[in-house]
Fold:
Amino acid sequence: MPSTLVPTIKVKKLHAAAKLPRYSHAGPWGDLAADLAAVAAATLAPSGTPGCTQAISTGIALELPATHGALVEDRSGLAMKGLTTLAGVIDPGYRGEIKVVVTNLTPVPFEIAAGDRIAQLRIVQRIEAIFEEVTELVEAPRGAAGFGSTGL
Structure:
């Protein structure tokens, strides 16, 4: 019987070679996100040229419960090599193929092989907020100080 604390995510393979999302390290000290793999090879052109940003197919579709969504995040090792993800929100009602939008930030082509882990899928609880317009906000110690205001 599925636990209410651990959502069950149904995965449909759209391609025979597709891999299901997989946690490399499970258990109490395991990974926060599951690996997503490319279903086919791709070459990303050097930064600033046509083809440096592409949607890479994973060959899978998800059935997320209405209570959850997913975020596509960088793999740190690839980010250090200059490959980063963009546009990574998956809503619970989306049933199409999961594609990972990646961009090559390096001056040389970046090769992705079929089966390469290209991103991470983080499952998140969906919370629908109420946005209330007000004329004033309560003061806080940080105030209006923005990006980098803490010394970064």
In short: Strands lie at 10-13, 34-37, 42-44, 53-63, 68-73, 83-86, 89-90, 97-104, 110-112, 117-125. The chain is about 5% helix and 35% strand. The longest strand covers residues 53-63.
